[in-house]
Amino acid sequence: MTDGVDLGNFDFQTDEGVGSRANIALIALEYDQTIEHEFNRLTMEPGIGVYCTRIRSVPDVTPATLRKMENEILSAVEMLPPGVEMDVVAFGCTSAAFIIGEDVVSEKIRQVRPNCAVTDPITAGLEAMKYLGAGKVGLLTPYIPELNEVIRGRFETAGHEVVSMGSFCEADDNIVAKIDLASVRDAIKRIAEARPCDAIFMSCTSLRAIDIINELEDELGIPITTSTHALAWHAMHLGQLTPQNGTGALFRRGAERK
After folding, report:
1. What's the pLDDT at 1?
2. Nearest 5°: CA angle at 213, between 210 and 216?
3. With left for phi above 0 and alpha for psi between -120 and 50, is residue 60 left, alpha or beta?
4. Closest to 27 measured CA to CA, from 56, 54, 48, 50
5. Confidence of residue 174 (pLDDT cuts 50, 70, 90)
6. Which of 142, 165, 195, 254 fits 176 for a cystine, CB–CB 3.0-4.6 Å?
7. Which is nearest to 51 in space by CA: 113, 124, 128?
């Protein structure tokens, strides 16, 4: 055995950590296989800390199962790193946000993190449509008819005309996460071709799409955004950040500063 050199205790300094520009928390569903992958790709930049926690859910997406999620919000937020001051908390479920209520989701989160900004995919999607100046909207969802009518009504209440809409009509999140990009591409094209629209919103954080947004926008000539895409954009907007990547018209225009 050779004699090692013990250098003793080293001095050190501290800085602001990973999130020197902003810290963003993401609340992902227990069964969501897609949102972390896409959200991180859209937001991971130097100085931006992204921290994910999971909320208990079930794979079967119905109004009844979504309402039960309200009771799980507090415990999910409590699992975020207590030593990190979050600038934004992003609740990662579109259908739960409009079934529970965006205001209720926000209020629950602020019970634990009172000083943060809060967003969710439906709030973010509507803000994105407003930012893009989209009066006539096309919608693509994976939802069952009962949920489709709720999301249509939410967009129409916000002042948007839903001119074209289609759904994969699949309630199981495990299956929705595996709907391939070719199917998503074809569905978006059919929605765009059915009636002229100013933009298309694809609802559900389990559906994959960010890898085909640019090519679809080039082909169709209109902005395309999704639950995760809009959520990441709005989280950066609330965090006073300007996106550096060019995924879609929404990100290329940058996050409008307050």
Report:
1. 59
2. 150
3. beta
4. 54
5. very high
6. 142
7. 113
Cβ burial 165-188 (10 Å sphere, 16+ → b, else e): bebbebbebeebbebeeeebeebb
- Bridge partners (DSSP) listed for residue 162: 137
- Which of 239, 164, 226, 238 is closest to 250 using CA atoms? 226
Q: Across residues 85-90, what is the average pLDDT? A: 97
Q: In whole angstroms, what is the distance from residue 85 CA to residue 64 CA?
A: 33
> CB of 24 within 8 A of CB of 87?
yes
